[in-house]
Design goal:
By secondary structure, the chain is of the alpha+beta class. It has 11 helices and 8 strands. About 4% of the residues have low confidence. It holds the Pfam family HTH_18.
Amino acid sequence: MARTIIENIVIAKYEEQTFFEFCKYTTIRFFEIVYFEKGTGTIKINGKTVPYAANSVFVFIPDDIYIVNPDSATTTVAIKFLKSFFRNTSAQNETLPVNNWFRKIEEILNSESHQLREMQFETESDRSHLVSLINMVATEYMREQTFDIFIIQNSVSVILHLIARNIQFINTADTVKEVKSSKIQQIINFIHANIYNSELLTTKSLAEEFHMADNYMSEYFKKHTDVSLKKYIINYKLKLVETRLKYTDLQFSEIAIELGFTDSSHLNKTFQSYKGMTIGAFKASISA
């Protein structure tokens, strides 16, 4: 069964299932977490078949299509964020840290190497914490009396943080060579994690963080990525701009300030310079 506990978030728990119907929320789902508590079988994801087992966690992003085919009785918990969640301006959603949640999800949306959607965890304790939180949300959902919004809100926030922390991201854009250096990967991860803190992304700050000379940091970064440090940071910011234009109703000025541009005019000029079109034209192209 499924129930919408917060407007535009659906919690679903299925116990001992040997057959799963096609998810009716697929066309309006933005992001989904599926935890397999028990059972074995396969999932067909975007035409590719992968196995699942007890204690595995999968995440799905917009346009993912999946079908679960159990080999044994399967128990699952799913948390589904519908597309309207990040566009909704209802009084209920205004009390939630929606933009903070979106920031956690966006790393997954931009993770080009994350193809088959099964979560891999840096430590087993992270898996254990995530599973405990998912079960807490499911338990709250099953309560006969009114659910506790505080428990749901905080549990979901930590769930998203744990998922974002464990996503293994490697930028495979054409302008960047395959990353083989663990240090360059650490630098890239640091940039992604601190993209909203411009003061931490200056050449001087990065050099201090990674124990390099100021004049060597930029040289080192370009040597390993074939792109300048400044250009990489701007390109990543613009990817986040595109994500916000696709999935939120934020004004151009709000996006500009959030990502460290002077104003919407500055953002528009930068976007046009790097992308070959204005942000208005890009917005129109995805709305058509």
